[in-house]
Design brief:
binds fe (ii) ion, alpha+beta, globular, 287 residues
Length: 287
């Protein structure tokens, strides 16, 4: 990767995806030239890591604003709404910690999560998400990031032709950890038909906007045909040489591009606490 060209010390995280910026204290005001370079490095590499940070909530918000407008939280439909701590705060605590009464102090706290991209099931998905690591278990709880740019580039011609110009129904059932069922009223679920191929507004590159967890149906195909197509794409995107697995350390902050990568979480011992602070950035309708 380029080193120093725009004043950043950049180190690739893998041959596939991801960049680390070294020697940066993001709690301090960042010069607009450096901010521009950070945004470029993030868009080109899909995820951008800075380690060893010590951030207050306000400092995390200030860092996030380099990349765009901080987004409000999106609420699931009433039928799928469980207990959510502090649902109006744009800073979301991702934690398995419980309070004295046994209630979660955050959300999305426990266990493995399949590969997905955030808020793909609304008209204007959040463009980027940040996680800042506060407390990390001694093993597991890693985040995998898979490249949707490479996924697009690696699609066999026949598969690409089947998907060209189509839309995909993105949907998420907040009560499940596996794909939701289509045998229920869609109005009870957040869902949206998105383009299968999206052009990244920063890089002009195309990505295949499909995940095994949240993509439910491809326009023009039956449910069975759709699931087969989604699985074929997911097998390519989730291949071991197409993702980077991040082993968190407290003080890590990562921003990822929801249009050009998927992310997934590995499991960890239940008795260990895992706490990260999450902020998202607003996005536009996709094309
Ligand atoms: Fe997510």
């Amino acid at each position: 990767m380029r080193d120093g060209e725009l004043g950043l010390n950049l180190v690739a995280l893998s041959t596939t995806i991801g960049i680390e910026v070294r020697g940066l204290d993001v709690s301090q005001p960042i010069d607009p030239t450096i901010g521009y370079a950070l945004r470029q490095a993030w868009a080109e590499n899909s995820i951008l890591l800075v380690r060893n940070q010590d951030l207050t909530d306000d400092e995390q918000f200030a860092y996030a604003r380099i990349y765009g407008e901080v987004a409000a939280r999106i609420k699931p439909p009433v039928e799928k709404r469980g207990f959510r701590a502090d649902p109006d705060n744009p800073m979301q605590l991702v934690t398995n910690e419980l309070d004295d009464e046994g209630k979660p102090v955050g959300s999305l706290g426990d266990g493995e999560m399949w590969f997905h991209t955030d808020k793909c099931y609304v008209e204007k998905p959040h463009r980027a998400s940040f996680l800042y690591a506060v407390e990390i278990p001694s093993e597991g709880g890693h985040t995998k990031f898979a490249s949707l740019y490479n996924g697009y580039d690696l699609l066999p011609e026949a598969l690409s032709q089947k998907l060209e110009g189509r839309k995909v129904l993105q949907m998420y059932d907040y009560t499940k950890t596996e794909p939701g069922s289509l045998d229920q009223p869609l109005e009870n679920l957040l869902h949206y038909w998105q383009p299968v191929f999206v052009t990244n507004p920063d890089t002009g590159r195309k990505a295949v906007y499909i995940s095994r967890l949240m993509s439910m149906r491809i326009e023009g195909y039956s449910d069975d045909e759709s699931r087969a197509l989604i699985n074929q794409v997911a097998d390519i995107v989730e291949a071991p040489d197409n993702f980077y697995e991040h082993v968190w350390r407290p003080g890590d902050i990562i921003i990822w591009d929801n249009l050009s990568c998927l992310h997934a979480r590995t499991d960890w011992p239940r008795e260990q606490r895992r706490t990260l602070r999450r902020v998202t950035i607003e996005g536009e309708a996709l094309a």
